[in-house]
Amino acid sequence: MTNYPTLLNEKDKELLKGCTINDKIDAAKELMKKDYDILCKSAPDLSKTVSFEEFTRGVIIASQRAYDLAYTDGSIR
Length: 77
Fold this sequence. Notes:
The protein is built from four helices and no strands. The chain is mainly α and 77 residues long. The protein has one domain. Helix 2 (21-42) packs across helix 4. The chain is flat, with a radius of gyration of 15 Å. The mean pLDDT is 81.
């Protein structure tokens, strides 16, 4: 099992059956899938080298790193 809801598989999501988090997970996956499809359309070879699951993991990692960037003036951007 993962700590990132968007990476939960169907078996894991079954454990959360009845929770509203499943709707949020599905919505987040749908948005990421749209982004992935747009990128694959722009760069057709992308789908041959990066799966949707790998793309999703990459988005999560990049998002975490981007939100944690602290600058020397103390601000976070």
